[in-house]
Amino acid sequence: MKILVVDDEKNILMLYKAELEDEGYEVITANSGKEAIELFETQNPDIVTLDIMMPDIDGIQVLRQLKQKNPNIPVIMLTAYDYRDDFSIWASDAYVVKSSDLTPLKETIKEIAEKFGIK
Amino acid sequence: MKEKERQALFELLKLLEIYEDIDILLERLIYYVCELMNAQGGIIRLIKNGYLHITATYNISSDKTILKSDEGICGEVLKEGKVKTFNKAQLEGKQLDIPAYSAICIPLKIKEENIGTIAVYNKMQKYFSDDTATKNLTVSEKNFGEFDEEDVAIGELFSAIASLIILKSLKFNELREREIHTMKVMAQIEELKSYLESLIQSSADAIIATDMDNIVTAWNKGAENIFGYTNEEVIEKPLPIIPDFLREMEKIYFERIKNDEILKDIETIMVTKEGKLVEVSLTMSPIKSSNGEIIGVSRIIRDITEKKRLERDLIRRNEELTKILFISSAVRSTLDLNKLLRMILTVITMGEGLGFNRAVLFLVDEENNVLKGVMAVGPSSYEEAWQIWSSMAREKKTLFEVLDELNKREFEQDSFLERLCRNISIPLSDNTPIVRAVKEGKIFNIKDVHKEEADPVIIQQLGSFAYAVIPLFSKDKAIGAVWVDNLYTRKPITEQDIHFLKGFADQVAGAIENAWIFDKIEKAEKELEMLFNSITDLIYYTDENYTIKKVNHSFLNAIGLKENEVVGKKCFKLIHRTNSPLQECPHRKAIETGRPQVGELEENYLEGVYLISSSPIFDKNNNVIGTINVAKNITELRNLKEKIISMEKMAALGEMAAKVAHEIRNPLLAIGGFAKRLDKDLKEEKSKEYIKVIIEEVKRLERILNEILSFVKPYPIGKESFKIKGLVDNVINFVESTLKENNNEFKVIVKEDFSVPGNYDKLKEVLLNLISNANEATKDGLITLKIEKADKLPVEIPDIQKEYLLIEVEDTGCGIQKENLKRIFDPFFTTKISGTGLGLAISKRIVEEHGGIIKVESEINKGTIFRVYLPLHKEGGENEDFGG
Questions:
Q1: Domain spans of chain A?
Q2: Which candidate from A18, A53, A102 shows the least CB-CB separation from B662?
Q3: B237-273 pLDDT, tens per residue?
Q4: What are the pLDDT digits (tens) for B696-742?
Q5: b/e map of B141-166 (b: 16 or more CB within 10 Å)?
Q6: CB contact under 8 A, B676 and A85
Q7: Could you confirm whether domain A2-107 is CATH 3.10.20.600?
Q8: Do B554 and B625 reside in the same domain of the chain?
């Protein structure tokens, strides 16, 4: 299973890559919204994790473009705080509040993978 | 002399006997002339004003009664001055004034003056001759002959003598008429003289004549009556009635008389036989002889002592009334207009006053443009009038006493006359006397309503036979009229009455105007008072020593006292319950600075925050003599304001927090994440311990971050309700162990279970927050959680219709400093060593988002009570939206 991790902070990308690879996933990272869209087209990831606050194109717009290209691609939004009632992320499949504890993220990926039948 | 002439002369002389009657004389004359001349008829014409007038005729008539004196045959003979015959031959082509066969005309002359003519027409034939000239004549022509020389001779004779006779007769007639006229005049003079004499004798005035040396030549009965001297005592003696001190004046009068002057109506003083001085009115005029020389002086003297006395009496009465009115107007502050007007009318109708029988006051009603009867004083019937007068005579009260009495008692307003007059309303567009009186400012004294123009309404309603109307003017504005009459006594209203009433009316008008003004002021005062009392702000006046002088109703309501418990007290004692004015009170500042001051003050005893505006009152010398203070309860306003400020603060905070959160969260995430990775790889104990510290601290930071973010982020409140008891049980489980740490007893009182609409988790957070705060503030104490229905609601809750749940968390801990009490709900305000300062701010926010309020009460070292008021669902009201 190939996961595309999108975040504007390289340290975070590094952490997520290490942690998720430890979990046995193939991880590709994008450092900006623009890069995320390019990689999405070339690498065909199975799941995308998307940071909302990014300097070039924000996560919400990236989400829209990704869903336009492939409505069936599962996207997990990573947020700085509780976005539950922000309807702009309803288009995503799940959201996880960012935390140094990556357990909630890992669990969500597992749930999504099961739901979408990705191996 | 011929027979005929002799006869003519004889007849003429006979005529002299009857010369007294000119008409008979002339008729006889013309008859004899015609007889003598054997003529058919004749006419005597006499000249008057240059024309010939027929004055006598015989057997003939002419419609030409007047002829010019130079026309026709008469004119001809007058011109020539001699008798002429006009027989057929002479008449050819001539126009006779009377159609005739023949004529003879005799001029009447005296000296050279023509006085008239005698014309004789148609000589009668006595016999018929064989004269061929007559043979061809008609029968009628045959009857008439021609006048001959003999006739002319008779004519000449007549001309001279008849003229004389006629003239003499005319003269005599004239003389006689003059004599008759003279006799008539004499008789008239005689009559006049006796009339004058009787007049002089019977005159009440003294009529006295003196010569130029002031010796009395005539002295009438009037003089005797006034001065006491009889005719015999003064005739031929010097005039004794001039007092010594007026001799010089008398001389001056005399000089003026000598200059042919007449002195009229001099008011002076004379002396009687008894030496009494009398006031008189004197008219002096010169007596002249038939040739115009001034030979004496006549005096007509009228005793005016009585008149003067009356006059003085009137003046005195007027003065008295004025005084009374002045007094009544001076006390008019206690008199309402009605009472004053009634007193005025009473004065008019009182015997001692003006003494009219009835008086009605009419006032202009500008709104309806009518003159309206307002008030009336007077008896309604003869019987009543008689009763009043007889009782007045018995009691012998003076006007002043009556007025005094009137002032004290309440007037009966419902007399018959009063009701009658109130129904009278006369349009100002009418032109009857009473309306004209008002419109033209004229006085009307109608002496007989049947003979003069009068007001039909008044005759009809008041049954008056004669009345007077006096307009009431105030500052040139007609305000009404006073109507008076003497229905019962039938006493005529004299000019003097009117005069007096008029002088009085001016005062009445002034009094009415004053009373009106007073009325208006009173009304304005009442309005002001009403205004003052209906203002919801608290208003009070004080003097410069903070003593309350006047307060409005709102003030009394707020302070819960009665007016007499407030006025005269010091305001600071009443309001602040202190012994001196508060340092920060605007009232004190206003008194100290002498300038208006505005400020907010929290009034503990009046419950709330007040905006107080205090303005000093100054006397003439600019000294502060007091203040007027307006206090407005702005508690609600202030609460709202504070809420807005707090919300603004939150919004700013939220924005900042979001930024900070984002900036911090990522680095924290990286730090924490990698630390965890390191933790897995590290084997050495010490390093592992260190990395654990990093991991824990990052966790703590992230927790704080979450708290901040959950505070600034809104969350939805569930629309479903839950049972409060369930929540309480949950909370008890949660806190029990923590409470034990500080050895606190925990008491839970839930009086009844309530269904609370809202977010279970959030309200749980509130309860946990309050209980853990109480626990932190208390050691070895008691913490009580009480849940009940709120029966007393704090003022901040605007909707008192709703039912509220009260959650009370009470501790026996250290309490909160007063200065901190207000700030404890501010975000990031904390007194604890550890804590975000957000706990209470979040709790407050949650409560408010549920439509409730949170309040705190605390006393140092005794404890603190937090009270949460939450709105409850009413039956079936579960669908209400309580969104935050």
A1: 2-107
A2: A53
A3: 888 888 888 888 888 888 888 888 888 888 888 888 8
A4: 889 888 888 877 766 655 555 566 788 888 888 888 887 888 888 88
A5: eeebbbbeeebbbbbebbbebbbebb
A6: no
A7: no
A8: yes
